[in-house]
Amino acid sequence: MSDGWHDVCDEADLWEGDMMGVQVAGKPVLLVRDAEAVRAFRDVCPHQENPLHTGVLDEEILVCEFHNWMFDTTTGEAINPVGECLTAYEARVSGDRIEVRFPAT
Q: Is the distance from CB of 73 to CB of 39 less than 8 angstroms?
């Protein structure tokens, strides 16, 4: 870890259009990759704290498998219901590694 960045996985482990749940420094993290970027969110639905990585990703729309809440993975904003939001973390590709950084507490 340098400057708060945590090494998570090899870039090749997360293909474009895919997502995966990982543990980073003891926290559940959802990684999502699209054509633009790798994004990271807390891997917990704000509704009843179920894991999001078990849901369905259709392009940039993530549907929680437990109650069908829907999120835009480019922003973390909820589509249904409106007004909710995923907790986002910084993510980047450094060399061939995906890294995540949590906000300072």
A: yes
Burial tier of 74 (Cβ tally within 10 Å: 0-12, 13-18, 19+): middle
Give the chain's end-to-end CA distance (angstroms, integer): 17
Instruction: Enter the DSSP assignment of 76.
Output: -
- What confidence category does residue 2 fall into, taking pLDDT thresholds of 50, 70 and 90? low
CB atoms within 10 A of CB 11: 16
Three-state DSSP class for residue 13: helix
Map out the domains of the chain as residue ranges.
5-101
pTM listed for this prediction? 0.93
- Give CATH superfamily name and number for 5-101: Rieske [2Fe-2S] iron-sulphur domain (2.102.10.10)
Cis peptide before 28 (omega within 30 of 0): no
